[in-house]
TrEMBL record, chain A:
The record marks Y17 as: Substrate discrimination. Monomer. Keywords: Cytoplasm, DNA damage, DNA repair, DNA replication, DNA-binding, DNA-directed DNA polymerase, Magnesium, Metal-binding, Mutator protein, Nucleotidyltransferase, Transferase. It comes from the Bacteria. Its main location: cytoplasm. Residues 8-189 form the UmuC domain. InterPro entries: DNA/RNA_pol_sf, DNA_pol_Y-fam_lit_finger_sf, DNA_pol_Y-fam_little_finger, DNA_polymerase-Y, DNApol_IV, PolY_HhH_motif, Rev_trsase/Diguanyl_cyclase, UmuC. This is DNA polymerase IV. It catalyses: DNA(n) + a 2'-deoxyribonucleoside 5'-triphosphate = DNA(n+1) + diphosphate. Its cofactor is Mg(2+). The gene is dinB. Poorly processive, error-prone DNA polymerase involved in untargeted mutagenesis. Copies undamaged DNA at stalled replication forks, which arise in vivo from mismatched or misaligned primer ends. These misaligned primers can be extended by PolIV. Exhibits no 3'-5' exonuclease (proofreading) activity. May be involved in translesional synthesis, in conjunction with the beta clamp from PolIII.
Length: 410, 394
């Protein structure tokens, strides 16, 4: 690969869930369609909608009742995640036929590094071919951004929808990217947008021309990344394995009714802890950081986290820490949604546990094994005898992220 | 003749002069108790009380309260003159900044009935809006029955605090562990602190009658840290300690230091301290501390700061590794080594904190197994014990 002259595509499926539904139910074509969770489960929020619905003002995250006010003829379907995942797999199979350098970001978007392919075919022709192929074989529209790096490709694919094809060159930045409001920049959430606006940064161009040091002072490393991106600098490789690496394991649950009942809270956390512990066990990893999210009845969220000396492995550990965080930070108002997320992983084999004066005796159950291992090690050398868990090292746990040992479709 | 109207308006509710040095010293002391983040607004102030025998300053954050007294005279030196007794509360931060910067050796403070306070020193004059002293909470009244009083030499008290307070818990998970537990019995003061990963214990003889007996006195670590800063190096002076149900009072010459006590039962840690030993080593305190310090250079970034210790015939090996940085080995000579071979992992940070609080040159360490607590005791000082829980690595 010739470095410095990369050609990166960002493929963005247009209104993916809605498009898949229309592809499978051609009779829906041309009608306003929205995908939303079940109203009875209080998940009646629009997840995505067709362009016909969007034209009437229907927006993602809007409650269904509100969308119906704007567009009475709206057809609402519940999401069929299995179908979307299967379709997603078909899409990425097609992309991988072009090059193995495909990075899946989510079900409906991904990057391709086509640097080595474009010596034989012009990038625009290649992009058109991919677009046409996806449309013919799967009946799905997509937008493609073509650029020298991931960030610009991502911004480019967003510029024309549906079935757009946008080239973003570095020399075009002052006339294209830099005129966009800062809130449209990939990586700038509402909180960051607020901070940047306070610094009098209103467009991506403002950020590109801002003082790098001051950005660093106010926003730290993430700020520097944004600053570089705004200037069109981004050397992140397209990583085909990133899909298999996880930074977090989490679960969240919208409650059927708002609650202030601690037994309900504990039940919810208990179920979530069980699922998370199961996954930890399957991956042979332990976590050193837990966070919980509490969404109140009025949709205000708080997220609180805690770093631990003793790794979380079991359901009981996770539940205990989650409840403790909850007790410390809950302000007694009715709760609508609860979630637990674990991060900062270590391979179980490499994990260390700072023993506790009041509980170390529970750990002593393992002592005979430890003594035996020490004895054998002393006699026959290192690694003569090990716990099975410490031999499972093939999976990479690096910088607190882990690579799953199964190709899951989750 | 006096102008009556004028005198009414400026009728004084307090008037005094005080030497700057004494006032600065007192303010510095009471400021240790004043917190800017208090829920009771008046506690952002310092209370000043001028009485016939001198001036008293009070600062409090409702957990800790400090009262500093400046007597009229000391060693033939006049500190204070009081023309009119009274009291006032002044914003602590401003008042303390002002008195430090005033230009002359004597400072005059007068307060009128509208709580307006005039501070004059040399040609400088400040007028401050005071707060109503009636709103200032009363300090706990402590009954001074003689049998309540325990006397500890100042330097010994400082040692006891230094050797125990570092091990208190900083997490509110078990609030009682954020304090140091004191027991007083049979002429001995027994202090214990633990954050559940390590424990520090110091026992000292004190002068009380045999009747004096206190159990489960838990003093917040934060209070002891403040007290430590106030205790000067005038070591021989005694500190009088008076304990009530929910307060402890430390009385030093002209200074009263009150602290709230923590509620709740402190766990019985005596049962948790191993009495046997499977591997016993004696070695130089500094030798081990420095070896662990070096090993921790690589362990610092790793979770739990793990270093390993491995026994050999005449030495112990300290080792540590980091997947990214590399590894380090060091042989530390020992004076004696007895018992079973041992390989144990522990936190460099916790062990260094314990070792650095031991003044004796030589220590004995008793290990009871790789997954059980080990105990460090200085040779020649029975009263100190440091316990550390190891780290399990697989």
């Amino acid at each position: 690969m010739v470095s410095g002259h990369r050609v990166i595509f960002h493929i963005d499926m247009n209104c993916f869930y809605a498009s898949v539904e229309i592809a499978h139910h051609p009779e829906l074509s041309g009608h306003p369609l929205a995908i939303a969770g079940r109203v009875e489960d209080r998940k009646g929020i629009i997840v995505t909608s067709s362009y016909e619905a969007r034209a009437k003002g229907v927006k993602t995250t809007m409650p269904v009742w509100k969308a119906r006010q704007l567009c009475p003829e709206l057809i609402v379907k519940q999401p069929n995640m299995t179908l979307y995942r299967e379709t997603s797999k078909q899409i990425f199979d097609i992309l991988r036929r072009v090059t193995p350098l495909v990075e899946k970001v989510s079900v409906d978007e991904g990057y391709m590094d086509v640097s080595s392919v474009v010596s034989v075919i012009h990038p625009v022709h290649l992009a058109k071919r991919i677009q046409r192929h996806l449309y013919k074989s799967l009946k799905l529209p997509c937008s493609i951004g073509i650029a020298p790096n991931k960030f610009l490709a991502k911004m480019a694919s967003n510029m024309q929808k549906p079935m757009g094809l946008t080239i973003l060159r570095k020399r075009d930045l002052p006339t294209t990217l830099w005129n966009l409001p800062i809130g449209d920049m990939h990586g700038v959430g509402s909180k960051t947008e607020e901070k940047l606006k306070k610094m009098n940064i209103h467009t991506i161009g403002d950020l590109a021309k801002f003082d790098r040091l001051r950005i660093s002072e106010r926003l730290g490393q993430p700020g520097i990344s944004l600053f570089n991106h705004a200037n069109g600098w981004d050397d992140r490789p397209v990583d085909p394995e990133s899909e298999d690496r996880y930074k977090s394991i989490g679960h969240s649950t919208t409650l059927p009714v708002d609650t202030i009942d601690l037994t309900v809270v504990k039940e919810v956390f208990s179920k979530q802890s069980e699922k998370i512990a199961f996954k930890l066990k399957r991956e042979h990893i332990a976590s050193y950081q837990i966070s919980i999210v509490i969404r109140y009845f009025d949709w205000t969220n708080i997220t609180r986290n805690k770093t631990l000396k003793t790794p979380l492995i079991t359901k009981q550990d996770i539940l205990f820490q989650a409840m403790e965080l909850f007790h410390r930070h809950w302000d007694d108002r009715p709760v609508r949604l609860l979630g637990i997320t674990l991060t900062s992983f270590e391979a179980l084999a490499d994990s260390t546990t700072q023993l506790d004066l009041f509980t170390y005796q529970d750990e002593l159950k393992k002592e005979p094994v430890v003594d035996l291992i020490n004895a054998v090690t002393n006699k026959y050398g290192n690694n003569a005898l090990q716990l099975a868990s410490s031999m499972i090292k093939n999976r990479k746990v690096k910088n607190g992220e882990y690579k799953s040992n199964e190709r899951t479709n989750e | 003749m006096q102008d009556i109207a004028d005198s009414n308006q400026t009728a004084l509710s307090m008037k005094m002069t005080v030497t700057k040095d004494k006032l600065v010293e007192s303010v510095t002391h009471v400021m240790k108790a004043v917190s800017s983040r208090t829920t009771i607004p008046i506690l952002t102030g310092i209370k000043i009380t001028a009485s016939l025998d001198g001036v008293t300053l009070t600062g409090s954050d409702s957990d800790v309260s400090i009262k500093s007294f400046i007597p009229l005279s000391e060693n033939d030196q006049q500190n204070v003159t009081v023309e009119k007794t009274g009291q006032i509360v002044l914003q602590a931060k401003v008042f303390s900044d002002i008195v430090r910067k005033l230009p002359s050796d004597t400072i005059a403070i007068e307060v009128d009935q509208r709580l307006i306070t005039k501070i004059t020193a040399g040609s400088s004059e400040f007028t401050l809006n005071g707060l109503d002293p009636e709103e200032y909470p009363l300090l706990p009244v402590i009954d001074e029955e003689d049998n309540n009083i325990v006397s500890i030499k100042k330097d010994l008290l400082k040692h006891v605090i230094r050797q125990t307070v570092f091990a208190v818990s900083t997490s509110e998970t078990r609030p009682v562990l954020t304090g140091v537990r004191w027991n007083i019995q049979n002429g001995k003061l027994d202090c214990v602190s633990t954050d559940s990963h390590r424990l520090a214990q110091r026992v000292i003889p004190i002068s009380t009658d045999d009747e004096t007996k206190y159990h489960n006195i838990v003093i917040p670590g934060k209070s002891l840290n403040e007290l430590y800063k106030i205790l000067d190096d005038n070591g021989e002076e005694p500190v009088r300690v008076i304990i009530t149900k929910n307060q402890i009072l430390f009385q030093i010459k002209n200074l009263d230091f009150f602290s709230r006590l923590l509620e709740g039962n402190y766990p019985d840690t005596d049962r948790l301290i191993p009495t046997d030993s499977k591997t016993t080593i004696t070695l130089s305190t500094k030798g081990l501390l420095h070896a662990i310090e070096r090993a921790s250079l690589l362990a610092k970034e790793e979770r739990n700061n793990v270093v390993k210790l491995r026994t050999h015939e005449n030495s112990v090996e300290i080792l540590s590794q980091s997947a990214e940085l590399g590894r380090v080995y060091e042989d530390v000579p020992v004076e004696t080594i007895e018992g079973e071979e041992l390989k144990i992992s522990f936190s460099a940070k916790l062990t260094m904190e314990a070792l650095s609080r031991i003044d004796a040159q030589t220590i004995q360490i008793n290990f009871t197994g790789a997954m059980r607590p080990f105990v460090i005791r200085p040779i020649g000082d029975e009263g100190i014990l440091m316990l550390i829980l190891p780290v399990r690595t697989f």
